[in-house]
Amino acid sequence: MDNNFKMVAKTLFGFEDILAKELTQLGAMEVEKGVRNVGFVGDKGFMYKANMGIRTAIKILKPIHSFRVTREDDLYKNVKKMKWEDYLKPTGSLAVDATVHNSIFTHSQYTALKTKDAIVDRFRDIDGTRPDVDLRFPDLKINVHIDRQRCTISLDTSGESLHRRGYKTATNIAPINEVLAAGLIMMSGWDGQTDFMDPMCGSGTMLAEAAMIACNIPPNLMRKEFAFERWNDWDVDLFEKIEESLLKKTRDFHHKILGYDKSPSAVAKAKENIKNAHLDEFIHIQHEDFFKTQKAGTEKLHMVFNPPYGERLENLNVEEFYGNIGSTLKHGYPNTNAWLITSNLEALKFVGLRPSRKIKVFNAKLEARLVKYEMYEGSRKASKQ
């Protein structure tokens, strides 16, 4: 038990429940939900596992010190007192990012700069050498969080945001974030037991995340690097053991994942990304205009998609476009659970179908809704009978 420590997984607004469930299922202890984050306890191996295996986390932080700040000097003095030589060589490199909700420190960049100065000055005082700043590939990435009078210093175990899975080399206009896509699919309740479709698939993110969920493939297997790989206590044997244990838990998938897009360039990009992710055996992508299609077969279909909002496509007639979504679903897609996300809340009025669920989420900084339309075989009444 002595090897366990507290960690914090950061996520998107509204994903706290899903993230807490993921962490619990993976084996985390003392799971505690916050706002846009979930706290938990685990050991070094679990830190590796969480970074590799969690779908809805943006970062995994390891808090190492906490103190009060009532005036500006408190930050510098407390940070300088910390034993940074335990974490970083004098010849190494560092980067600091900060989030602040405090009346003394109002600028996150200034807070990051003061933290960096304190660390560098400590090394200089010890033996005259100082670490460099490297914002792209630092040996140690440090996170500073000041909320009112409480400052928490954490090590960023992930490095680059965990939504950068490593399979996406080709993107189109405003591609959906991989963590957002995975969270929406999980929120929609898809479990890999039916066919899946994204009728406006863009660069294929929804399709890739759906396939990884269906097969229980760890989402971050393809990443080039995690921040902890540059730490003094990096244990490559343990990492490989954890990776192997996660790969043993993958499962077979016996249904189809289908993507449509009416843009030939989007189809080409999606195919390239799916191939990079080694998921092409599960996913079939076609150049199709969704509004001219019909569902093949009578099997249950699960659909999750991210239609254009108007921000993404100029000259989009929103009323007509969303009206076409409604009529295509109604006339062409019986026995389908269709989920879509939009930040154009007005546009939903033109779909002409009554949603059975509406969930508030955010797409980047845009408030959005994830809505569910249940399309029955024949009429709703008949299906109830």
Automatic annotation (TrEMBL):
Single GO MF annotation: methyltransferase activity
SUPFAM superfamilies: S-adenosyl-L-methionine-dependent methyltransferases
Superkingdom of origin: Bacteria
Gene3D superfamilies, A to Z: 3.30.2130.30, Vaccinia Virus protein VP39
GO biological process: methylation
Coiled-coil residues: none
Domain THUMP: residue ranges: 46-157
Keyword line: Methyltransferase, RNA-binding, Transferase
Pfam families, per the entry: RlmL_1st, THUMP, UPF0020
InterPro entries given in the database record: RlmKL-like_Mtase, RlmL_1st, SAM-dependent_MTases_sf, THUMP_dom
PANTHER family, per the entry: RIBOSOMAL RNA LARGE SUBUNIT METHYLTRANSFERASE K/L, RIBOSOMAL RNA LARGE SUBUNIT METHYLTRANSFERASE K_L
Name this polypeptide is given: Class I SAM-dependent RNA methyltransferase
Organism: Winogradskyella echinorum
